[in-house]
Amino acid sequence: MTQRVTPMRDSDPHTSPLPDEGTASFGRVLRDQRKVILVAAVLIVADYWILIQLDEWTLAGCIAGGIGLGLVNHLATEFWLLRLLVSGERPTKKNLAMSTITRLAVLSVVAIGCAVAFWPSGIGLLLGLALFRLIALVMTTIPLLKELKSQ
Predict the structure, then answer these.
(1) Domain spans in the chain, listed from the N-terminal domain onward
(2) What is the value of pTM for the model shown?
(3) Packing angle, helices 57-87 and 123-150, rounded to 10
(4) pLDDT tens across 53-71, in order?
């Protein structure tokens, strides 16, 4: 038997409240994550700007692919979390672990497969993935630190 809980409401005016109809949409995730999407776009443009001048088209494409892959993983994670919050159900540790392991396994297979297929420039895909993950982590941590400091 699943226990239903009331979805938490966010009082911060900079984040959108949970939808009253109880549904999660991917459009909402895109709106909420627009800063992360903008940073990914800037990273891709900078990547091409620098590496095309060095005549490294394949490396530029691989790094851009890694950034894109990291963005897709980030958005999929945010969508999964939004659906979980809106549903009001309490997830089990097994559900959390299986979802995370599945998503990361698919990400790893795709990333390593592309890196091997485009070797040696393919290592740029892993670099782009790591770079995006670092930037997304910093962008997620800064608001949390500000909130902790204000309390």
Answers:
(1) 26-150
(2) 0.76
(3) 40
(4) 998 899 999 999 999 999 9
